[in-house]
Amino acid sequence: MLIDAHCHCHEFSDEELAKFSEIKLVGVSDDATSSARTLELSERIGLVPCLGIHPWHVDRSTPADLSTTLKLIERSNAPCIGEVGLDKKFVPETYEKQREVFSAFLRLAKEYDLVLNVHAPDAWADVVEALRKADVDKAVIHWYTGPLALLEDIGRYGYYITINPAVKIQKKHRDVAEAARPDMVLLESDGPYEYRGLKLQPPMVKETIKVLAEIWRMSEDDVVDRVYYNASRLFRLT
């Protein structure tokens, strides 16, 4: 089975989601409202729910929104918090508030032994440091395009990264795919995001499989088996 480890499922219609039935979806959320929809979708179509507040939405989130999201995580059986993290690239003006919000999710992840599905553009090292200081054991840093040297620490700490279909056209992401150990890689679409003309959707993880098979000099079936094992281990899939 193919697993899309980072998809904004709440942005797709029910009809669109039905077309992705051959792929196991890990649905990330952007705020309190989308967290509730992600949880509802998990109960209805069986996706893996990640609840949280995206760094891009921190400026619009009130203390009440954060409290609502934290309580939703505590009261649900969601195994994952996300999309959460830090972003110095796109929203540097809210960085201090991002750190406060991310700290709340870090504490909850540690307390309940949850996976963190993390966003970290230009804050890659800060995120890894925050994860370690919080003693968080399970995390995946999505669409990693950070320093290649940091991959060694990410792998040593037992964390994962995702490779996105953008690997076909984004050189720094391909460099990451070439440098990363296969045992630390998951697949993602980040759908329905659009990147340089690519309309990202879950079925596109199949294209990523082809690229990784070329880079890793493995058969496509072996790549599928490898990344499935990684994802099933992280998200405790059976």
TrEMBL record:
Keywords: Metal-binding. It comes from Thermoproteus tenax (strain ATCC 35583 / DSM 2078 / JCM 9277 / NBRC 100435 / Kra 1). A divalent metal cation 1 binds at H6, H8, E83, D190. A divalent metal cation 2 binds at H119, H142. The keyword Metal-binding applies. Coiled coil: none annotated. GO terms for molecular function: hydrolase activity, acting on ester bonds; metal ion binding. This is Deoxyribonuclease. The keyword Metal-binding applies.
